[in-house]
Amino acid sequence: MNTTVKRSISGTIFLVVFLCGLLLNEYIFAALFIFMIVGMLREFYKMTMGSSFRYSRALAIVAGVVLFILIFCAMAFDMTPKMTALALVPVIILMITSLYTKDKSEFAKFSHIYTGLMYIAIPLSMAPFIMFGNDEFDGMPMLCFFILIWAGDVGAYCFGITLGRKFGGKLFPSISPNKSWAGFWGGMLCTVAASVVLHRLGLFRFPWYHCVILAIIMDVAGVYGDLFESQWKRVYGLKDSGNIIPGHGGLLDRFDSTLFAVPIGVLYLMAFDLM
Hints:
Shape: globular
Strand order of the largest sheet: 1-2
Number of strands: 2
Number of helices: 11
Number of domains: 2
Low-confidence stretches: none
Radius of gyration: 19 Å
Mean pLDDT: 88
């Protein structure tokens, strides 16, 4: 199959599934994000640890899923927030199991288990805060978040391709040689424009100045998220984190910006009591 056709078909299917998870109901949303947590943690651990510590990695994935489920239940069903502390149980068990590892020659790799939880599980587990920000399921704010992220990615690509070689220098050549300052500013311009349009359409239901500020800080965070994942792939000599989406790579490749941008957006809304 032609590569472009394959990318288009797989990308369209994934987009439809993703939109259903955000907009239909809370259970499909929960299933989607659990799938993302499991998939991204598996990709990260395979990239950084190879086949080492399989059982500990599985337990870490369980810990990430438990954290998401507890926060989801606290927001969706008014479960006492104190119960989220139970997410520490599998993490403590994980630490204890490390003591029984017989072969300590690659024990330094064990630190990647905790990095994966901090990098992937915790940011994605913040999603229920915005999905239930008004005490009922509403996927529109999260969809607006993703539209801002996608607008930034598209803008950075288009401006980078057309203007990056002629104007401005490289953004971070040691990690991602193709990214330019022209792409960075173009991505930010598109993100801000998208936030204004969403606000005017009544979809981004915050004061206009908050929408613009969110666009700016989420775009910057998204760029750093992209660079952070690129750094890991460069260290381990990989082009893609996985191949779950034909023609597009892995889940980490598609959601690297999200892991930085969404938590920053959620924290901003919390700071100004907007949800």
